[in-house]
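Why do we care about 3D structure at all? Because function follows from shape, and shape follows, mostly, from sequence. That is the central idea of this module. The next example makes it concrete: a single protein chain, its amino acid sequence, and then its structure expressed as tokens.
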Amino acid sequence: MTQLSLSILSADFSDLRKTLETAKSGGADYIHMDVMDGHFVPNISFGSAVIASLAGKTELPFDVHLMTEEPDDILERYVTENTEYITVHCEACRHLDRVLRRIKSLGAKCGVALNPATHPAALDYVLDYADQILVMSVNPGFGGQSFIPGVLDKIRLYSEMRSERGLNFKIAADGGINTENMRSVIEAGADILTVGSAAVSAPDPLSALRKFKEVADAYTE
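And the structure:
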């Protein structure tokens, strides 16, 4: 079954609890937390204080996506009662295997993200350990970007590798996903679709998210 992860990056930061309520009512499975440091990506979003303030305010688990340099220095700050995944970028980790093992030692599942231009072979030696592979379908740093169709081949490749090796990691896609392209993303092999501005910036975010849920459920039934 395809799951939805709602990103709060484009949400109204003066009323994030409303966004959490929308996520729950609209059928989202995760809250996606885009942490940007202004170094690894050119934008700054929010950090551990905001995420900690939202912990306990929803039943939905958090997928904390660290778009930061040297994420291994800050991992502990993002472990909350809601944190299920902590996802780091392979491009930002000098010792990726060690970082992933440290995430698990903190009690969270470990995810690895890779940018559109990063070769999928960069993760070849951690696929047996990672809980989630997050394929970026835009260049990270800003919300509201257009989906890059070329990443569908990358998603297909990871899906094939998972089957061939008998592995269990989830495949997530993040960036520019809407109700027009989400079918192709699911068909390529993605298990989790991260939905951002197409839902939270819509005139009626709840209706928009429910439409995503409807399409995802219809395709995977």
